[in-house]
TrEMBL record:
It comes from the Bacteria. Pfam families: Cupin_2, HTH_18. GO terms for molecular function: DNA-binding transcription factor activity; sequence-specific DNA binding. CDD domains: cupin_RmlC-like (cd02208). PROSITE patterns: HTH_ARAC_FAMILY_2. Keywords: DNA-binding, Transcription, Transcription regulation. It comes from Lachnoanaerobaculum umeaense. The keyword DNA-binding applies. This is AraC family transcriptional regulator. InterPro entries: Cupin_2 (IPR013096), Homeodomain-like_sf (IPR009057), HTH_AraC (IPR018060), RmlC-like_jellyroll (IPR014710), RmlC_Cupin_sf (IPR011051).
Amino acid sequence: MDLEINKNAKTEYEIIRHTKTNSLAMLLIEILSRSVHCHSDLEIGMLLDGNIDLVIDNEVFRLKKNDIYIVNRYQPHSFYSNKSHNKIVIFLINHALYKNIGPDIIYKKNHIVFNKEYNNLYKTVFECAMCYASDLPFTEMGAGAKALDLIYQLSKIANPIIDELSTKQSRSKAKHLQRITDYISEHHSENISLSDIAQLESLSTYYISHFIKKMTGMNFTTYLNNIRFDHAFSLLTKTNLRISDICCESGFSDSRYLNRLFKEKMGMDIQSYRKNMDKIELPLTDQPYMTVQNHISQSKFMSVLERYYTESLEE
């Protein structure tokens, strides 16, 4: 389904820190909103509770409890939760884990809907997660082995292809996108245009316009205004600046336009928000305006995983 997703946070090239092992990281997390980003790791996640929308290549995947998602290396993606709470276990698998024993795989299927026929797959997800969370000796080896098993099982159901060229092209596009979004983020308060981006990349404005739309799901003007809104929102919540000064700092030439944009995204005007800021739970709308996510501490990993694993066995 094609849909123009309204996201304003900066598109990021994310550097993953693999703290438990050199090639595997795991997160237990609640995501309210995660802006467009990409990284060099293969990302595999399973929704333990709630629901969330995953956006890849301008396509929306509506994830529900026990669904599994796959994000290929260098593939830009974002999340938004429609104000729903969720818990997700996420594996970030560095290419180093499997490059010497198999080809670089691109999965054509990003969303695996819950199906009892895939019980072994779900069991492997929990086993991998609990190995990673364990403090016992050598469990990092078990986590790596389970991650490889996960990749293998998904290769049977997620329509994998072996295409080294596509991976190189995806890497090139990710870096290309990073340069563009970095420039927009650094110069958003100025009067920048598509022509400035085209000149920066030595490409035509036509190409840049279509590239930004394809990679972020929105046109240049919408993306720029979302970056400006993010900065304005930060100034509004963290400073006592006047609205006119916030407009100047964030790149908006008209306070009435900012107020209208604020009302569309937040459900109230700026003055009302400032008066009631301490009482408002975010997010207020079904469209993400920034990255909002809550990490579960590593000390709680095992107890949370065991609870959801027990629930999954009973279902």
